[in-house]
Amino acid sequence: MSIPCEFIYDQNTYKCIITDFDLSTIEKIKNFNGEHFQGLSNNEVNMIVFRSSQMSKFPRGLTNFFPQLKMIEIFSCGLTEITKNDLYGLGNVVYLSIIFNNLKYLPGDLFEFTPNLQIIDFSGNQISTVGFAIFDPLKKIIEFTMRENLSVDVGYVDEFHPKQSARKLKQFKNYIKEKCRAMESLKDIVTMKLADGINETNVVDIFVCSSQFQLKGLKEKAFKMIKKKIVPWIDEDMINKPEKVLKMIENRKIR
Q: Matching InterPro entries, A to Z (predicted)?
Protein backbone atom coordinates (compact mmCIF):
# COMPACT_ATOMS: atom_id res chain seq x y z
CA MET A 1 0.00 0.00 0.00
CA SER A 2 1.13 3.55 -0.73
CA ILE A 3 1.67 5.77 2.32
CA PRO A 4 0.82 9.48 1.92
CA CYS A 5 3.52 11.71 3.35
CA GLU A 6 5.01 15.19 3.35
CA PHE A 7 8.63 15.95 2.55
CA ILE A 8 10.22 18.77 4.54
CA TYR A 9 13.72 20.20 4.46
CA ASP A 10 14.59 21.52 7.92
CA GLN A 11 17.97 22.36 9.46
CA ASN A 12 19.97 20.39 6.90
CA THR A 13 17.68 17.39 7.40
CA TYR A 14 15.40 16.12 4.64
CA LYS A 15 12.41 14.52 6.37
CA CYS A 16 9.57 12.27 5.31
CA ILE A 17 6.64 12.90 7.66
CA ILE A 18 3.58 10.67 7.96
CA THR A 19 0.76 12.15 10.03
CA ASP A 20 -2.57 10.71 11.18
CA PHE A 21 -2.54 7.63 8.97
CA ASP A 22 -3.65 4.08 9.81
CA LEU A 23 -0.85 1.60 9.12
CA SER A 24 -2.24 -1.10 11.43
CA THR A 25 -3.72 -3.19 8.59
CA ILE A 26 -0.82 -2.81 6.17
CA GLU A 27 1.25 -5.97 5.74
CA LYS A 28 3.84 -4.43 3.42
CA ILE A 29 4.57 -0.85 2.45
CA LYS A 30 4.83 -0.41 -1.32
CA ASN A 31 5.96 3.20 -1.43
CA PHE A 32 5.70 6.65 0.17
CA ASN A 33 3.70 9.14 -1.82
CA GLY A 34 4.52 12.82 -1.46
CA GLU A 35 5.86 15.81 -3.42
CA HIS A 36 9.62 16.17 -3.20
CA PHE A 37 11.51 19.44 -3.06
CA GLN A 38 12.93 20.41 -6.43
CA GLY A 39 16.07 18.45 -7.19
CA LEU A 40 15.58 16.05 -4.27
CA SER A 41 14.31 12.47 -4.12
CA ASN A 42 13.98 9.51 -1.76
CA ASN A 43 17.74 9.14 -1.99
CA GLU A 44 18.25 12.36 -0.03
CA VAL A 45 15.80 11.57 2.80
CA ASN A 46 17.70 11.04 6.06
CA MET A 47 14.85 11.15 8.59
CA ILE A 48 11.39 9.59 8.74
CA VAL A 49 8.73 10.65 11.24
CA PHE A 50 5.49 8.80 12.02
CA ARG A 51 3.28 11.15 14.00
CA SER A 52 -0.12 10.48 15.61
CA SER A 53 -0.72 7.51 13.33
CA GLN A 54 -1.81 3.96 14.10
CA MET A 55 0.50 0.98 13.79
CA SER A 56 0.45 -2.54 15.21
CA LYS A 57 3.99 -3.35 14.04
CA PHE A 58 7.20 -1.46 13.51
CA PRO A 59 7.37 -0.50 9.78
CA ARG A 60 10.05 -2.71 8.23
CA GLY A 61 12.17 -2.19 5.12
CA LEU A 62 12.44 1.60 5.43
CA THR A 63 15.90 1.71 3.88
CA ASN A 64 14.50 0.08 0.74
CA PHE A 65 12.80 3.41 0.12
CA PHE A 66 15.27 5.75 1.83
CA PRO A 67 18.83 4.37 1.51
CA GLN A 68 20.39 7.34 3.36
CA LEU A 69 18.09 7.04 6.38
CA LYS A 70 19.82 8.06 9.63
CA MET A 71 16.99 9.03 11.97
CA ILE A 72 13.64 7.44 12.88
CA GLU A 73 10.93 8.91 15.07
CA ILE A 74 7.63 7.23 15.99
CA PHE A 75 5.49 9.55 18.07
CA SER A 76 2.14 8.57 19.58
CA CYS A 77 1.31 5.74 17.18
CA GLY A 78 0.15 3.02 19.60
CA LEU A 79 3.13 0.72 18.92
CA THR A 80 3.04 -2.16 21.42
CA GLU A 81 6.18 -4.15 20.64
CA ILE A 82 9.54 -4.02 18.92
CA THR A 83 12.08 -6.74 18.13
CA LYS A 84 15.57 -6.93 16.65
CA ASN A 85 14.11 -8.15 13.35
CA ASP A 86 12.14 -4.91 13.09
CA LEU A 87 15.45 -3.05 13.10
CA TYR A 88 17.16 -5.29 10.56
CA GLY A 89 18.71 -3.26 7.75
CA LEU A 90 18.95 -0.10 9.88
CA GLY A 91 22.65 -0.44 10.63
CA ASN A 92 23.39 3.16 9.62
CA VAL A 93 20.68 4.72 11.78
CA VAL A 94 22.11 6.91 14.57
CA TYR A 95 18.88 8.26 16.12
CA LEU A 96 15.85 6.24 17.23
CA SER A 97 12.95 7.86 19.06
CA ILE A 98 9.85 5.82 19.91
CA ILE A 99 8.03 8.03 22.37
CA PHE A 100 4.52 8.06 23.82
CA ASN A 101 3.62 4.64 22.49
CA ASN A 102 2.58 1.46 24.33
CA LEU A 103 5.83 -0.51 24.56
CA LYS A 104 6.10 -2.68 27.67
CA TYR A 105 9.30 -4.67 27.14
CA LEU A 106 12.63 -4.14 25.42
CA PRO A 107 14.31 -7.47 24.55
CA GLY A 108 17.99 -7.88 25.36
CA ASP A 109 18.96 -8.45 21.72
CA LEU A 110 16.97 -5.47 20.40
CA PHE A 111 19.96 -3.54 19.06
CA GLU A 112 21.87 -6.45 17.53
CA PHE A 113 21.52 -5.00 14.02
CA THR A 114 21.89 -1.31 14.92
CA PRO A 115 25.41 -0.86 16.37
CA ASN A 116 25.73 2.74 15.18
CA LEU A 117 22.88 4.14 17.26
CA GLN A 118 23.98 7.20 19.23
CA ILE A 119 20.76 8.62 20.64
CA ILE A 120 17.82 6.47 21.76
CA ASP A 121 14.61 7.69 23.38
CA PHE A 122 11.80 5.46 24.67
CA SER A 123 10.13 8.08 26.86
CA GLY A 124 6.41 7.98 27.55
CA ASN A 125 5.81 4.25 27.07
CA GLN A 126 4.77 1.55 29.56
CA ILE A 127 8.15 -0.18 29.81
CA SER A 128 8.70 -2.13 33.00
CA THR A 129 11.43 -4.56 31.93
CA VAL A 130 14.59 -4.17 29.89
CA GLY A 131 16.39 -7.27 28.65
CA PHE A 132 19.78 -8.08 30.15
CA ALA A 133 22.82 -6.76 28.25
CA ILE A 134 20.67 -4.67 25.92
CA PHE A 135 23.46 -2.10 25.56
CA ASP A 136 26.21 -4.53 24.56
CA PRO A 137 26.02 -3.92 20.77
CA LEU A 138 25.91 -0.13 21.20
CA LYS A 139 29.54 0.94 21.02
CA LYS A 140 28.72 4.53 20.00
CA ILE A 141 25.83 5.29 22.37
CA ILE A 142 25.73 8.87 23.69
CA GLU A 143 22.22 9.22 25.11
CA PHE A 144 19.63 6.70 26.28
CA THR A 145 16.36 7.92 27.78
CA MET A 146 13.32 6.10 29.14
CA ARG A 147 11.60 8.85 31.05
CA GLU A 148 7.93 8.58 32.02
CA ASN A 149 7.64 4.80 31.92
CA LEU A 150 6.09 2.51 34.56
CA SER A 151 9.16 1.89 36.68
CA VAL A 152 12.15 2.66 34.51
CA ASP A 153 13.56 6.16 34.34
CA VAL A 154 17.18 6.34 33.25
CA GLY A 155 19.46 8.32 31.02
CA TYR A 156 23.09 9.06 30.42
CA VAL A 157 24.73 11.79 28.38
CA ASP A 158 28.26 12.96 27.60
CA GLU A 159 28.05 16.73 27.78
CA PHE A 160 28.27 17.71 31.45
CA HIS A 161 31.61 18.65 32.96
CA PRO A 162 32.60 16.18 35.70
CA LYS A 163 33.74 18.96 38.07
CA GLN A 164 30.23 20.37 38.10
CA SER A 165 28.83 17.09 39.39
CA ALA A 166 31.51 15.76 41.71
CA ARG A 167 29.96 12.65 43.26
CA LYS A 168 31.71 9.42 44.03
CA LEU A 169 30.47 6.10 42.69
CA LYS A 170 30.00 4.80 46.22
CA GLN A 171 27.66 7.68 47.05
CA PHE A 172 25.73 7.02 43.86
CA LYS A 173 25.21 3.32 44.63
CA ASN A 174 24.27 4.00 48.25
CA TYR A 175 21.75 6.60 47.15
CA ILE A 176 19.94 4.17 44.85
CA LYS A 177 19.99 1.42 47.47
CA GLU A 178 18.45 3.72 50.05
CA LYS A 179 15.87 5.02 47.60
CA CYS A 180 14.82 1.53 46.57
CA ARG A 181 14.82 0.22 50.13
CA ALA A 182 12.24 2.87 50.97
CA MET A 183 10.00 1.74 48.11
CA GLU A 184 8.69 -1.68 49.11
CA SER A 185 6.50 -1.86 46.02
CA LEU A 186 9.55 -2.34 43.81
CA LYS A 187 10.47 -5.90 42.93
CA ASP A 188 13.93 -7.36 43.32
CA ILE A 189 14.81 -7.09 39.64
CA VAL A 190 17.93 -5.87 37.91
CA THR A 191 17.54 -6.07 34.14
CA MET A 192 19.83 -3.36 32.83
CA LYS A 193 23.58 -3.03 32.48
CA LEU A 194 26.00 -0.86 30.55
CA ALA A 195 27.61 -2.13 27.39
CA ASP A 196 30.95 -3.84 27.86
CA GLY A 197 32.43 -1.88 24.97
CA ILE A 198 31.31 1.66 25.76
CA ASN A 199 34.20 4.09 25.45
CA GLU A 200 34.51 5.95 28.74
CA THR A 201 35.25 9.17 26.86
CA ASN A 202 31.73 9.05 25.42
CA VAL A 203 30.00 8.86 28.79
CA VAL A 204 31.02 11.15 31.62
CA ASP A 205 27.78 11.29 33.59
CA ILE A 206 25.14 8.84 34.68
CA PHE A 207 22.16 10.33 36.41
CA VAL A 208 18.94 9.29 38.08
CA CYS A 209 15.97 11.59 37.59
CA SER A 210 13.09 9.73 39.21
CA SER A 211 12.23 7.94 42.43
CA GLN A 212 10.68 5.10 40.42
CA PHE A 213 13.74 2.99 39.68
CA GLN A 214 13.60 -0.76 39.18
CA LEU A 215 16.85 -1.45 41.01
CA LYS A 216 15.98 -2.86 44.44
CA GLY A 217 18.66 -5.29 45.50
CA LEU A 218 21.21 -3.50 43.35
CA LYS A 219 24.05 -5.73 42.17
CA GLU A 220 27.63 -4.80 41.42
CA LYS A 221 27.43 -6.04 37.82
CA ALA A 222 25.07 -3.19 37.00
CA PHE A 223 28.04 -0.88 37.51
CA LYS A 224 30.67 -3.10 35.96
CA MET A 225 31.86 -0.58 33.40
CA ILE A 226 31.40 2.61 35.43
CA LYS A 227 34.94 3.85 35.90
CA LYS A 228 36.41 6.58 38.05
CA LYS A 229 36.33 9.12 35.24
CA ILE A 230 32.56 8.70 34.97
CA VAL A 231 31.21 10.97 37.68
CA PRO A 232 27.53 10.53 38.62
CA TRP A 233 25.33 13.59 38.83
CA ILE A 234 22.88 13.14 41.67
CA ASP A 235 21.44 16.28 43.20
CA GLU A 236 18.06 17.21 44.58
CA ASP A 237 17.26 19.56 41.72
CA MET A 238 17.70 16.78 39.16
CA ILE A 239 15.77 14.25 41.23
CA ASN A 240 12.81 16.51 41.92
CA LYS A 241 12.65 18.14 38.49
CA PRO A 242 13.31 15.46 35.86
CA GLU A 243 11.85 17.69 33.17
CA LYS A 244 15.05 19.73 33.36
CA VAL A 245 17.04 16.66 32.39
CA LEU A 246 14.70 15.91 29.50
CA LYS A 247 15.08 19.45 28.24
CA MET A 248 18.85 19.08 28.25
CA ILE A 249 18.57 15.93 26.17
CA GLU A 250 16.08 17.47 23.76
CA ASN A 251 18.44 20.39 23.13
CA ARG A 252 21.28 18.13 21.97
CA LYS A 253 22.12 17.73 18.29
CA ILE A 254 23.34 14.60 16.57
CA ARG A 255 26.99 14.84 15.62
A: LRR_dom_sf
